[in-house]
Amino acid sequence: MLKKILKSYDYSIVIVYILLCLFGLVMIYSSSMVMAVQYYGYPADFFYQKQKINLIVAFLIFIFFAVFPYKAFRNKKFLMVMTFLAVLGLFAVYFFGHATNNAQSWIQVGARKIQPSEFVKISVIIYLSAVYANKQRYIDQLNKGVLPPVIYLVFVCFLIKIEPDNGTALITFLIGMMIIICSGMRFKTIFKLVMLGVLLISLLAPFFILKMDKIFTSGNMKRIEGFLDPFGTVGDQGFQLVNSYLAIGSGGIKGLGLGQSVQKLGYLPEAHTDFIMAIIAEELGLFGVAFVILGIGYLVLRGIFIGISCRDPFGSMLAIGIAGMLGLQSFINLGGASGLIPITGVTLPFISYGGSSILVLSICMGILTNVSMFKNYDKKYKTEKAAPDPQLDTLRTKHQVGKAIQR
Protein backbone atom coordinates (compact mmCIF):
# COMPACT_ATOMS: atom_id res chain seq x y z
CA MET A 1 0.00 0.00 0.00
CA LEU A 2 2.73 2.48 1.03
CA LYS A 3 4.79 1.58 -2.03
CA LYS A 4 1.85 2.29 -4.31
CA ILE A 5 1.23 5.65 -2.61
CA LEU A 6 4.88 6.69 -2.96
CA LYS A 7 4.81 5.75 -6.65
CA SER A 8 1.72 7.93 -7.14
CA TYR A 9 3.38 11.19 -6.05
CA ASP A 10 4.19 13.79 -8.69
CA TYR A 11 7.85 14.38 -7.82
CA SER A 12 8.25 16.98 -10.57
CA ILE A 13 6.19 19.39 -8.43
CA VAL A 14 8.44 18.72 -5.43
CA ILE A 15 11.64 19.22 -7.45
CA VAL A 16 10.53 22.49 -9.06
CA TYR A 17 9.23 23.80 -5.71
CA ILE A 18 12.58 23.09 -4.00
CA LEU A 19 14.65 24.53 -6.86
CA LEU A 20 12.66 27.78 -6.89
CA CYS A 21 12.91 28.14 -3.09
CA LEU A 22 16.69 27.56 -3.10
CA PHE A 23 17.19 29.93 -6.03
CA GLY A 24 15.12 32.54 -4.20
CA LEU A 25 17.24 32.09 -1.07
CA VAL A 26 20.42 32.80 -3.03
CA MET A 27 18.89 35.88 -4.65
CA ILE A 28 17.57 37.17 -1.32
CA TYR A 29 21.13 37.12 0.02
CA SER A 30 22.50 38.82 -3.07
CA SER A 31 19.81 41.52 -3.22
CA SER A 32 19.57 42.31 0.52
CA MET A 33 23.14 42.26 1.86
CA VAL A 34 23.88 45.93 1.11
CA MET A 35 20.51 47.13 2.40
CA ALA A 36 20.85 45.03 5.57
CA VAL A 37 24.18 46.71 6.44
CA GLN A 38 23.66 50.29 5.24
CA TYR A 39 19.97 50.84 5.99
CA TYR A 40 19.25 48.61 9.00
CA GLY A 41 22.72 48.12 10.49
CA TYR A 42 22.30 44.34 10.43
CA PRO A 43 24.85 41.71 9.35
CA ALA A 44 25.03 41.21 5.58
CA ASP A 45 23.32 37.80 5.79
CA PHE A 46 20.50 38.93 8.10
CA PHE A 47 17.60 38.47 5.66
CA TYR A 48 19.23 35.34 4.22
CA GLN A 49 19.38 33.70 7.65
CA LYS A 50 15.78 34.60 8.46
CA GLN A 51 14.55 33.27 5.13
CA LYS A 52 16.57 30.09 5.63
CA ILE A 53 14.69 29.44 8.86
CA ASN A 54 11.41 30.27 7.09
CA LEU A 55 12.25 27.72 4.38
CA ILE A 56 13.08 24.95 6.87
CA VAL A 57 9.73 25.46 8.63
CA ALA A 58 7.95 25.81 5.28
CA PHE A 59 9.39 22.55 3.94
CA LEU A 60 8.23 20.65 7.04
CA ILE A 61 4.77 22.14 6.53
CA PHE A 62 4.93 21.15 2.85
CA ILE A 63 5.65 17.51 3.82
CA PHE A 64 2.74 17.48 6.27
CA PHE A 65 0.22 18.75 3.72
CA ALA A 66 1.65 16.49 1.01
CA VAL A 67 0.87 13.37 3.10
CA PHE A 68 -2.28 14.59 4.89
CA PRO A 69 -5.43 13.57 2.93
CA TYR A 70 -6.83 16.72 1.35
CA LYS A 71 -10.41 15.38 1.55
CA ALA A 72 -10.34 15.99 5.32
CA PHE A 73 -10.46 19.76 4.59
CA ARG A 74 -14.01 19.24 3.33
CA ASN A 75 -15.24 18.64 6.88
CA LYS A 76 -17.84 21.25 7.88
CA LYS A 77 -16.44 21.79 11.39
CA PHE A 78 -12.96 22.37 9.98
CA LEU A 79 -14.35 24.87 7.45
CA MET A 80 -16.19 26.78 10.18
CA VAL A 81 -13.08 27.03 12.37
CA MET A 82 -10.87 27.98 9.41
CA THR A 83 -13.14 30.76 8.14
CA PHE A 84 -13.62 32.10 11.68
CA LEU A 85 -9.86 32.27 12.25
CA ALA A 86 -9.34 33.94 8.86
CA VAL A 87 -11.85 36.70 9.63
CA LEU A 88 -10.53 37.04 13.20
CA GLY A 89 -7.01 37.51 11.86
CA LEU A 90 -8.13 40.29 9.51
CA PHE A 91 -9.99 42.05 12.33
CA ALA A 92 -6.91 41.71 14.56
CA VAL A 93 -4.85 43.42 11.85
CA TYR A 94 -7.36 46.26 11.66
CA PHE A 95 -7.27 46.94 15.40
CA PHE A 96 -3.77 45.80 16.44
CA GLY A 97 -1.86 45.64 13.16
CA HIS A 98 1.68 46.79 12.52
CA ALA A 99 2.07 49.26 9.64
CA THR A 100 4.84 48.87 7.05
CA ASN A 101 5.06 50.80 3.77
CA ASN A 102 1.70 52.55 4.34
CA ALA A 103 -0.14 49.24 4.83
CA GLN A 104 -1.31 47.93 8.20
CA SER A 105 -1.12 44.27 7.14
CA TRP A 106 1.05 42.62 9.80
CA ILE A 107 0.66 41.44 13.37
CA GLN A 108 3.78 41.54 15.53
CA VAL A 109 4.33 38.22 17.33
CA GLY A 110 7.53 38.51 19.33
CA ALA A 111 10.39 39.16 16.91
CA ARG A 112 8.30 37.93 13.96
CA LYS A 113 5.60 39.54 11.87
CA ILE A 114 2.67 37.55 10.48
CA GLN A 115 0.57 38.69 7.53
CA PRO A 116 -2.94 37.20 8.01
CA SER A 117 -4.10 38.24 4.52
CA GLU A 118 -1.62 35.74 3.04
CA PHE A 119 -3.29 32.90 4.95
CA VAL A 120 -6.72 34.16 3.92
CA LYS A 121 -5.86 33.32 0.29
CA ILE A 122 -5.49 29.61 1.01
CA SER A 123 -8.51 29.65 3.33
CA VAL A 124 -10.63 31.13 0.52
CA ILE A 125 -9.40 28.42 -1.88
CA ILE A 126 -10.25 25.62 0.56
CA TYR A 127 -13.57 27.13 1.65
CA LEU A 128 -14.96 27.88 -1.81
CA SER A 129 -13.75 24.54 -3.21
CA ALA A 130 -15.36 22.59 -0.35
CA VAL A 131 -18.63 24.52 -0.31
CA TYR A 132 -19.20 24.34 -4.06
CA ALA A 133 -18.20 20.66 -4.09
CA ASN A 134 -20.83 20.02 -1.41
CA LYS A 135 -23.44 22.05 -3.34
CA GLN A 136 -23.10 20.20 -6.67
CA ARG A 137 -26.72 18.99 -6.59
CA TYR A 138 -28.07 22.54 -6.43
CA ILE A 139 -25.07 24.49 -7.75
CA ASP A 140 -27.26 26.59 -10.06
CA GLN A 141 -29.69 27.75 -7.37
CA LEU A 142 -28.67 31.39 -6.88
CA ASN A 143 -29.85 31.88 -3.29
CA LYS A 144 -28.93 28.47 -1.91
CA GLY A 145 -26.02 27.34 -4.01
CA VAL A 146 -24.21 30.44 -5.25
CA LEU A 147 -24.54 33.55 -3.11
CA PRO A 148 -23.48 32.52 0.46
CA PRO A 149 -19.83 31.74 -0.51
CA VAL A 150 -19.71 34.86 -2.72
CA ILE A 151 -20.80 37.03 0.20
CA TYR A 152 -17.97 35.58 2.31
CA LEU A 153 -15.49 36.21 -0.50
CA VAL A 154 -16.53 39.86 -0.90
CA PHE A 155 -16.43 40.39 2.88
CA VAL A 156 -12.86 39.13 3.37
CA CYS A 157 -11.68 41.05 0.29
CA PHE A 158 -13.19 44.20 1.79
CA LEU A 159 -11.32 43.61 5.08
CA ILE A 160 -8.04 43.18 3.16
CA LYS A 161 -8.74 46.28 1.06
CA ILE A 162 -9.14 48.57 4.07
CA GLU A 163 -5.70 47.61 5.49
CA PRO A 164 -5.03 48.84 2.72
CA ASP A 165 -3.61 45.95 0.68
CA ASN A 166 -5.06 46.33 -2.79
CA GLY A 167 -2.81 43.72 -4.41
CA THR A 168 -3.75 40.88 -2.04
CA ALA A 169 -7.41 41.90 -2.10
CA LEU A 170 -7.42 41.75 -5.91
CA ILE A 171 -5.65 38.38 -5.99
CA THR A 172 -8.04 36.90 -3.40
CA PHE A 173 -11.10 38.11 -5.30
CA LEU A 174 -9.83 36.82 -8.65
CA ILE A 175 -8.96 33.44 -7.11
CA GLY A 176 -12.51 33.20 -5.80
CA MET A 177 -14.00 34.10 -9.17
CA MET A 178 -11.79 31.50 -10.88
CA ILE A 179 -13.06 28.77 -8.54
CA ILE A 180 -16.66 29.91 -9.10
CA ILE A 181 -16.24 29.70 -12.88
CA CYS A 182 -14.77 26.19 -12.55
CA SER A 183 -17.30 25.00 -9.95
CA GLY A 184 -19.68 23.41 -12.46
CA MET A 185 -22.19 26.25 -12.63
CA ARG A 186 -23.93 26.79 -15.93
CA PHE A 187 -22.99 29.87 -17.93
CA LYS A 188 -26.49 31.23 -17.32
CA THR A 189 -25.93 31.15 -13.53
CA ILE A 190 -22.55 32.85 -13.81
CA PHE A 191 -24.09 35.53 -16.05
CA LYS A 192 -26.80 36.17 -13.42
CA LEU A 193 -24.11 36.50 -10.76
CA VAL A 194 -22.16 39.01 -12.88
CA MET A 195 -25.31 41.05 -13.55
CA LEU A 196 -26.07 41.06 -9.82
CA GLY A 197 -22.58 42.38 -9.16
CA VAL A 198 -22.96 45.12 -11.79
CA LEU A 199 -26.30 46.13 -10.25
CA LEU A 200 -24.78 46.27 -6.76
CA ILE A 201 -21.86 48.41 -7.97
CA SER A 202 -24.30 50.76 -9.73
CA LEU A 203 -26.33 51.19 -6.55
CA LEU A 204 -23.18 51.87 -4.51
CA ALA A 205 -21.69 54.24 -7.12
CA PRO A 206 -22.79 57.43 -5.26
CA PHE A 207 -21.09 56.14 -2.10
CA PHE A 208 -17.89 55.37 -4.05
CA ILE A 209 -17.88 58.89 -5.51
CA LEU A 210 -18.37 60.54 -2.10
CA LYS A 211 -15.67 58.40 -0.49
CA MET A 212 -13.24 58.49 -3.40
CA ASP A 213 -10.45 59.94 -1.26
CA LYS A 214 -10.84 57.07 1.21
CA ILE A 215 -11.03 54.32 -1.42
CA PHE A 216 -8.14 55.67 -3.47
CA THR A 217 -5.66 56.98 -0.90
CA SER A 218 -2.81 59.34 -1.71
CA GLY A 219 -0.48 56.36 -1.74
CA ASN A 220 -2.67 54.61 -4.33
CA MET A 221 -2.78 57.71 -6.53
CA LYS A 222 0.98 58.12 -6.34
CA ARG A 223 1.47 54.56 -7.55
CA ILE A 224 -0.88 55.19 -10.47
CA GLU A 225 0.92 58.44 -11.33
CA GLY A 226 4.28 56.66 -11.13
CA PHE A 227 2.95 53.96 -13.44
CA LEU A 228 1.59 56.44 -16.00
CA ASP A 229 4.63 58.72 -16.05
CA PRO A 230 7.62 57.10 -14.28
CA PHE A 231 10.30 59.32 -15.83
CA GLY A 232 8.30 62.49 -15.22
CA THR A 233 7.99 61.59 -11.53
CA VAL A 234 11.41 59.97 -11.12
CA GLY A 235 12.16 62.02 -8.00
CA ASP A 236 9.09 60.67 -6.20
CA GLN A 237 6.55 58.02 -7.16
CA GLY A 238 8.34 56.91 -10.33
CA PHE A 239 11.66 56.29 -8.55
CA GLN A 240 11.25 52.54 -8.00
CA LEU A 241 9.96 51.79 -11.48
CA VAL A 242 12.69 53.79 -13.26
CA ASN A 243 15.41 52.01 -11.27
CA SER A 244 13.71 48.70 -12.03
CA TYR A 245 13.92 49.58 -15.73
CA LEU A 246 17.63 50.37 -15.33
CA ALA A 247 18.27 47.05 -13.58
CA ILE A 248 16.39 45.02 -16.18
CA GLY A 249 17.95 46.90 -19.11
CA SER A 250 21.52 46.67 -17.86
CA GLY A 251 21.34 42.89 -17.31
CA GLY A 252 20.92 42.00 -20.96
CA ILE A 253 21.07 38.33 -21.89
CA LYS A 254 23.90 37.10 -19.64
CA GLY A 255 23.65 39.61 -16.78
CA LEU A 256 26.39 41.41 -14.88
CA GLY A 257 27.14 38.39 -12.71
CA LEU A 258 25.82 37.09 -9.39
CA GLY A 259 26.31 39.74 -6.70
CA GLN A 260 27.28 42.44 -9.19
CA SER A 261 24.03 44.44 -9.21
CA VAL A 262 24.37 48.22 -9.05
CA GLN A 263 20.73 49.01 -8.32
CA LYS A 264 20.74 47.10 -5.03
CA LEU A 265 23.33 49.59 -3.67
CA GLY A 266 20.53 51.82 -2.35
CA TYR A 267 18.98 52.82 -5.68
CA LEU A 268 16.16 50.25 -5.72
CA PRO A 269 14.24 50.11 -2.40
CA GLU A 270 12.88 46.74 -1.23
CA ALA A 271 15.05 44.94 -3.78
CA HIS A 272 14.72 41.63 -1.89
CA THR A 273 10.90 41.71 -1.80
CA ASP A 274 8.75 43.36 -4.48
CA PHE A 275 11.52 44.04 -7.02
CA ILE A 276 13.68 40.96 -6.66
CA MET A 277 13.07 40.06 -10.31
CA ALA A 278 14.76 43.31 -11.37
CA ILE A 279 17.90 42.24 -9.48
CA ILE A 280 17.71 38.76 -11.02
CA ALA A 281 17.49 40.35 -14.48
CA GLU A 282 20.45 42.63 -13.72
CA GLU A 283 22.73 39.95 -12.27
CA LEU A 284 21.72 36.83 -14.21
CA GLY A 285 20.14 38.34 -17.30
CA LEU A 286 17.59 36.60 -19.49
CA PHE A 287 18.67 33.16 -18.26
CA GLY A 288 17.85 33.95 -14.64
CA VAL A 289 14.48 35.47 -15.56
CA ALA A 290 13.65 32.49 -17.79
CA PHE A 291 14.49 30.04 -14.98
CA VAL A 292 12.00 31.69 -12.62
CA ILE A 293 9.21 32.17 -15.18
CA LEU A 294 9.53 28.63 -16.56
CA GLY A 295 9.58 27.16 -13.05
CA ILE A 296 6.49 29.04 -11.86
CA GLY A 297 4.84 28.50 -15.25
CA TYR A 298 5.35 24.75 -14.94
CA LEU A 299 3.68 24.69 -11.50
CA VAL A 300 0.75 26.75 -12.81
CA LEU A 301 0.21 24.52 -15.85
CA ARG A 302 0.69 21.38 -13.78
CA GLY A 303 -1.92 22.60 -11.31
CA ILE A 304 -4.40 23.31 -14.11
CA PHE A 305 -3.79 19.85 -15.62
CA ILE A 306 -4.33 18.17 -12.24
CA GLY A 307 -7.54 20.15 -11.76
CA ILE A 308 -8.89 19.21 -15.19
CA SER A 309 -8.05 15.52 -14.87
CA CYS A 310 -9.14 15.08 -11.23
CA ARG A 311 -12.51 13.32 -10.91
CA ASP A 312 -13.21 14.70 -7.43
CA PRO A 313 -14.84 18.19 -7.71
CA PHE A 314 -13.22 19.30 -4.44
CA GLY A 315 -9.73 18.25 -5.52
CA SER A 316 -10.27 19.73 -8.96
CA MET A 317 -11.23 23.16 -7.60
CA LEU A 318 -8.39 23.08 -5.06
CA ALA A 319 -5.82 22.45 -7.80
CA ILE A 320 -7.23 25.13 -10.10
CA GLY A 321 -7.46 27.64 -7.24
CA ILE A 322 -3.83 27.05 -6.24
CA ALA A 323 -2.66 27.29 -9.86
CA GLY A 324 -4.68 30.49 -10.28
CA MET A 325 -3.15 32.01 -7.14
CA LEU A 326 0.38 31.29 -8.36
CA GLY A 327 -0.33 32.66 -11.83
CA LEU A 328 -2.12 35.80 -10.67
CA GLN A 329 0.43 36.68 -7.98
CA SER A 330 3.33 36.17 -10.39
CA PHE A 331 1.67 38.28 -13.09
CA ILE A 332 0.92 41.14 -10.68
CA ASN A 333 4.47 41.15 -9.29
CA LEU A 334 6.19 40.91 -12.68
CA GLY A 335 3.74 43.37 -14.20
CA GLY A 336 4.56 45.92 -11.49
CA ALA A 337 8.34 45.46 -11.81
CA SER A 338 8.20 45.83 -15.61
CA GLY A 339 5.74 48.73 -15.72
CA LEU A 340 2.94 46.72 -17.28
CA ILE A 341 0.58 47.48 -14.36
CA PRO A 342 0.81 49.78 -11.31
CA ILE A 343 3.03 48.63 -8.43
CA THR A 344 1.01 46.79 -5.77
CA GLY A 345 3.60 45.47 -3.31
CA VAL A 346 2.82 41.82 -4.07
CA THR A 347 5.76 39.42 -3.64
CA LEU A 348 7.06 37.03 -6.31
CA PRO A 349 6.12 33.43 -5.33
CA PHE A 350 8.98 31.34 -3.90
CA ILE A 351 11.59 34.00 -4.76
CA SER A 352 10.84 37.13 -2.70
CA TYR A 353 11.69 37.47 0.98
CA GLY A 354 8.77 36.85 3.32
CA GLY A 355 7.87 34.30 5.98
CA SER A 356 4.08 34.35 5.67
CA SER A 357 4.30 34.16 1.88
CA ILE A 358 6.58 31.10 1.74
CA LEU A 359 4.55 29.31 4.43
CA VAL A 360 1.30 29.77 2.50
CA LEU A 361 2.93 28.78 -0.79
CA SER A 362 4.32 25.63 0.84
CA ILE A 363 0.86 24.74 2.16
CA CYS A 364 -0.50 25.21 -1.37
CA MET A 365 2.22 23.06 -2.94
CA GLY A 366 1.67 20.35 -0.31
CA ILE A 367 -2.07 20.27 -1.00
CA LEU A 368 -1.50 20.27 -4.78
CA THR A 369 0.95 17.36 -4.43
CA ASN A 370 -1.55 15.48 -2.29
CA VAL A 371 -4.40 16.02 -4.77
CA SER A 372 -2.13 14.81 -7.57
CA MET A 373 -1.15 11.73 -5.56
CA PHE A 374 -4.76 10.70 -4.92
CA LYS A 375 -5.64 11.34 -8.56
CA ASN A 376 -2.79 9.16 -9.79
CA TYR A 377 -3.47 6.44 -7.21
CA ASP A 378 -7.17 6.24 -8.05
CA LYS A 379 -6.47 6.23 -11.77
CA LYS A 380 -3.73 3.59 -11.68
CA TYR A 381 -4.60 1.17 -8.92
CA LYS A 382 -8.36 1.46 -8.49
CA THR A 383 -8.79 1.22 -12.26
CA GLU A 384 -6.61 -1.88 -12.24
CA LYS A 385 -8.87 -3.45 -9.61
CA ALA A 386 -11.95 -2.67 -11.61
CA ALA A 387 -10.42 -3.78 -14.95
CA PRO A 388 -11.80 -7.02 -16.37
CA ASP A 389 -9.60 -10.11 -16.30
CA PRO A 390 -9.84 -12.02 -19.64
CA GLN A 391 -8.86 -15.35 -18.09
CA LEU A 392 -11.38 -14.95 -15.30
CA ASP A 393 -14.08 -14.05 -17.82
CA THR A 394 -13.25 -17.22 -19.85
CA LEU A 395 -13.51 -19.39 -16.75
CA ARG A 396 -16.83 -17.79 -15.82
CA THR A 397 -18.17 -18.36 -19.33
CA LYS A 398 -17.12 -22.04 -19.29
CA HIS A 399 -18.68 -22.45 -15.85
CA GLN A 400 -21.95 -20.91 -17.06
CA VAL A 401 -21.95 -23.11 -20.21
CA GLY A 402 -21.31 -26.22 -18.10
CA LYS A 403 -24.21 -25.36 -15.84
CA ALA A 404 -26.47 -24.84 -18.86
CA ILE A 405 -25.52 -28.29 -20.31
CA GLN A 406 -26.18 -29.96 -16.96
CA ARG A 407 -29.63 -28.41 -16.91
UniProtKB/TrEMBL annotation:
<dbReference type="GO" id="GO:0051301">
    <property type="term" value="P:cell division"/>
</dbReference>
<feature type="transmembrane region" description="Helical">
    <location>
        <begin position="78"/>
        <end position="96"/>
    </location>
</feature>
<keyword id="KW-0328">Glycosyltransferase</keyword>
<comment type="similarity">
    <text>Belongs to the SEDS family. FtsW subfamily.</text>
</comment>
<dbReference type="GO" id="GO:0032153">
    <property type="term" value="C:cell division site"/>
</dbReference>
<dbReference type="GO" id="GO:0008360">
    <property type="term" value="P:regulation of cell shape"/>
</dbReference>
<keyword id="KW-0808">Transferase</keyword>
<keyword id="KW-0133">Cell shape</keyword>
<feature type="transmembrane region" description="Helical">
    <location>
        <begin position="313"/>
        <end position="332"/>
    </location>
</feature>
<feature type="transmembrane region" description="Helical">
    <location>
        <begin position="116"/>
        <end position="133"/>
    </location>
</feature>
<dbReference type="Pfam" id="PF01098">
    <property type="entry name" value="FTSW_RODA_SPOVE"/>
</dbReference>
<feature type="transmembrane region" description="Helical">
    <location>
        <begin position="168"/>
        <end position="186"/>
    </location>
</feature>
<feature type="transmembrane region" description="Helical">
    <location>
        <begin position="145"/>
        <end position="162"/>
    </location>
</feature>
<keyword id="KW-0472">Membrane</keyword>
<dbReference type="GO" id="GO:0009252">
    <property type="term" value="P:peptidoglycan biosynthetic process"/>
</dbReference>
<dbReference type="InterPro" id="IPR018365">
    <property type="entry name" value="Cell_cycle_FtsW-rel_CS"/>
</dbReference>
<feature type="transmembrane region" description="Helical">
    <location>
        <begin position="352"/>
        <end position="374"/>
    </location>
</feature>
<keyword id="KW-0812">Transmembrane</keyword>
<keyword id="KW-1133">Transmembrane helix</keyword>
<keyword id="KW-0573">Peptidoglycan synthesis</keyword>
<feature type="transmembrane region" description="Helical">
    <location>
        <begin position="53"/>
        <end position="71"/>
    </location>
</feature>
<feature type="transmembrane region" description="Helical">
    <location>
        <begin position="275"/>
        <end position="301"/>
    </location>
</feature>
<feature type="transmembrane region" description="Helical">
    <location>
        <begin position="12"/>
        <end position="41"/>
    </location>
</feature>
<dbReference type="InterPro" id="IPR001182">
    <property type="entry name" value="FtsW/RodA"/>
</dbReference>
<feature type="transmembrane region" description="Helical">
    <location>
        <begin position="193"/>
        <end position="210"/>
    </location>
</feature>
<dbReference type="GO" id="GO:0008955">
    <property type="term" value="F:peptidoglycan glycosyltransferase activity"/>
</dbReference>
<dbReference type="GO" id="GO:0015648">
    <property type="term" value="F:lipid-linked peptidoglycan transporter activity"/>
</dbReference>
<dbReference type="GO" id="GO:0005886">
    <property type="term" value="C:plasma membrane"/>
</dbReference>
<comment type="function">
    <text>Peptidoglycan polymerase that is essential for cell division.</text>
</comment>
<protein>
    <recommendedName>
        <fullName>Probable peptidoglycan glycosyltransferase FtsW</fullName>
        <ecNumber>2.4.99.28</ecNumber>
    </recommendedName>
</protein>
